[in-house]
TrEMBL record, chains A, B:
Pfam families: dsrm, Ribonucleas_3_3. The keyword Cytoplasm applies. The active site is at D47, E119. It is an enzyme of class 3 (hydrolase). Homodimer. It catalyses: Endonucleolytic cleavage to 5'-phosphomonoester. HAMAP family: RNase_III. It comes from Pseudodesulfovibrio portus. The lineage of its organism: Bacteria, Pseudomonadati, Thermodesulfobacteriota, Desulfovibrionia, Desulfovibrionales. Residues 157-226 form the DRBM domain. Its EC number is 3.1.26.3. Its cofactor is Mg(2+). Residues 3-130 form the RNase III domain. This is Ribonuclease 3. Keywords: Cytoplasm, Endonuclease, Hydrolase, Magnesium, Metal-binding, mRNA processing, Nuclease, RNA-binding, rRNA processing, rRNA-binding, tRNA processing.
Amino acid sequence: MDSAELQISIHHRFGQVKFLETALTHSSFANEQDGFDDNERLEFLGDAVLELCISEEGFRRFPSAAEGQLTRIRSQLVKERSLAAIARSLKLDRYIRLGRGEELQGGRERDALLADAFEAVMGAVFLDGGFEAAKGSILAIFEDLWPLETMLPEAKDYKSRLQEVAQERFRDRPIYVLAGTSGPEHEKIFKVDVTLPEGEVFRGTSTSVKRAEQESAKIALDYLCDE
Amino acid sequence: MDSAELQISIHHRFGQVKFLETALTHSSFANEQDGFDDNERLEFLGDAVLELCISEEGFRRFPSAAEGQLTRIRSQLVKERSLAAIARSLKLDRYIRLGRGEELQGGRERDALLADAFEAVMGAVFLDGGFEAAKGSILAIFEDLWPLETMLPEAKDYKSRLQEVAQERFRDRPIYVLAGTSGPEHEKIFKVDVTLPEGEVFRGTSTSVKRAEQESAKIALDYLCDE
């Protein structure tokens, strides 16, 4: 396999080209031929390498983004369709070793197969050159794919976000009720219950009604987004 | 906050203790007091740091484990309950800054809150000392928690694994049928369909019946494990 051009595209010159070759070996090929490892273990590793490098860069690029926003940005960047597009732009499809059955079924064009191979290649860079090498490669490849700070959704106001989510999902709005207070006058604790249109109730507890509302909205959002 | 003992337990001496303090600040505390960042962004980062360090170490410890086994081992190690237990053994609960409302509701004992704080602390180590520092800390903390190689389920034989999964889930076994062949005699391709007890059919294609059976079993396993 002559991978010189590919090594230039991914911004990493391999010390041990064997890692790259394994990253480009689909299981259907390894199953047909003796003596080849497939790329599935490297894909496992590369998935985590990518996740950390993109997380760290998002963390640095968007210092005022909340955790939920960072998670959404990362999901956009590392979803299968995005990775498959990157794989195509790197012409990975030309290098992948496929079994004949998989080839006949059009495997070389499949998003899942291409995304997996890209992850495996990043795993190979990590094994070959360590974390900093993988980070350099990944940041260069993703350089033009980051959203602009100005396109980020508003941070941190959970009540507004819950309002939007509820409108979108239920065509109705959440209702907040002060459920009680406790503690002495100078350090009173407020409990607010928010009820979603379908009847679920979530309680926020804090040192003001406003903060308790935000807390309850946050818990409700976590619930809705985990479903 | 005097965190000297904690820094010893996590095997990292902080250059910038501010990172550690933020990692130990729950959002309920930051919401009540001005001038404190909460630990949610660090938790986002730490989750990915942990994932990569555990993935890499699993990859190295179990050179013959298949990707699916590595995934299962990692899930066991980084699931909420495991991380909460680690947080308790590091006495993180004593250091976490909680809001009063959360405190009254027993937040300091909650698995989710403790696991998040542990992830945030690992994110802080990564920011403070870089990847190698975080890896050192994580490997030391997890040292005694890895399974033994001999306890790993058998690698790679997809037919046997599908058999087990089908017995367990459906109390019945999958059925393999040779669905056809194609190609010239000297490079014939075999298609095998495996039918699960509930009727789903998955096709494997390869250069021998045996390999095509393995392929079909693998696809069926992927399907069952993704549900």
